[in-house]
Amino acid sequence: MCDLAERTPPGAAIDDARTIDLLMEHLRWSVLGVDHHDLPAGDLRREEHDGGRFLFVVSGAIELEHDSGVYRTGRGDFALLPRGGRFTLRAEQDSQFVGISIALLGAHPLMTHAMPPVLHSYGFGQQEPGFAALLETIHREAALRRPGAISVIAGLTDAAVSGSVRFWLEHGCGSARPWLAAAHDHHLGLALAAIHDAPGSPWTVASLARVARASRSQFAEHFRDAVGDTPARYVTRIRMTRAERMLRDGEPVSDIAYRLGYDSEDGFSRAFRRHSGVAPSRWRRAALQPAA
C-alpha cells in the first residue's frame, strides 16, 4: 500500500471494481530493457530514462529521490515511473534491485501524463505472494542471463507490472478515472496532462477548456462526468498531494506556496487546512514522527 501522504483524500472519487477492470484492459506493457544491480550500503546510482521505468527491490532498502519527492522502497516493494525521467537511488543498506524499462502499448500517449510521476507502494511482496514470485523469477532471469531471458522476462513483466498497478489502486493510492479519461478523449487528456505537468499554473475552468479545445460549459460538464470531480477540486487535489510530498521532503511552506501557484503563504495554508484539517507545519510534524 502507499503511505498516508499518497492515499486518496476524503471526498475524492474512489474507483469501483468496474473502473479498475476497464483500466486493466488498457495496460499492456512492452519490455525495452532489463537490468539487475547490487547496490552497497551508502552508494548512489543516478538514472535518467525517456520512457517508463519499473523498479522492484529484491533485498535491502533503497531511497528513490525524484523531483516529485523521496520514496523509501524496501524488500518486496516497487516503484513505477510511467514517464521515466531523472532520479537517484541511494542504498540504505546492501541492496539488490531489478530495473525494467517499459512502454505502454496501444493506449493513448496522454494516458501516462494523467498518472502520477511515481506510483510507489510497500507491502506488495508480502500481500501479493503470487506476483512477488513473478518478480523474483524476473530477478533470477536478469541475474543469470540465460538464453532467451529477455523473452521470458517480457512475458512475466506485463502481468507483474499490471498487478502492481492494481494493488496501488485497490489500496486507495490514487484513481484510474483520469487515466481512462485521457485514454478515451484526446482533448480531455490534454487538460489532465497540463494539470499534472504544471499544478502551480493559475488554472481556471476557462483556461483548461482552452487547452482541451472545448467551450467552458461543455468542458466542465464532461470533466466532472469523466473524472468524478470538478476541474477546480481536481486541481486542488493534485496541488495538495504535491504539497504533502514537498512538506515531507522538508521544503519551506513559503516555497511550496509559491511553486503551487498561491499568492501568499497564508492563502496556501488556508487551502491546506481545508484539505487536511490541520496547518501545513502541524501536518509535517505528524508525518515525520516515527511510528510507535
Automatic annotation (TrEMBL):
<dbReference type="InterPro" id="IPR014710">
    <property type="entry name" value="RmlC-like_jellyroll"/>
</dbReference>
<dbReference type="InterPro" id="IPR011051">
    <property type="entry name" value="RmlC_Cupin_sf"/>
</dbReference>
<dbReference type="InterPro" id="IPR018060">
    <property type="entry name" value="HTH_AraC"/>
</dbReference>
<dbReference type="Pfam" id="PF12833">
    <property type="entry name" value="HTH_18"/>
</dbReference>
<dbReference type="InterPro" id="IPR009057">
    <property type="entry name" value="Homeodomain-like_sf"/>
</dbReference>
<dbReference type="InterPro" id="IPR018062">
    <property type="entry name" value="HTH_AraC-typ_CS"/>
</dbReference>
<feature type="domain" description="HTH araC/xylS-type">
    <location>
        <begin position="189"/>
        <end position="286"/>
    </location>
</feature>
<dbReference type="InterPro" id="IPR020449">
    <property type="entry name" value="Tscrpt_reg_AraC-type_HTH"/>
</dbReference>
<dbReference type="InterPro" id="IPR050204">
    <property type="entry name" value="AraC_XylS_family_regulators"/>
</dbReference>
<keyword id="KW-0804">Transcription</keyword>
<protein>
    <submittedName>
        <fullName>AraC family transcriptional regulator</fullName>
    </submittedName>
</protein>
<keyword id="KW-0238">DNA-binding</keyword>
<keyword id="KW-0805">Transcription regulation</keyword>
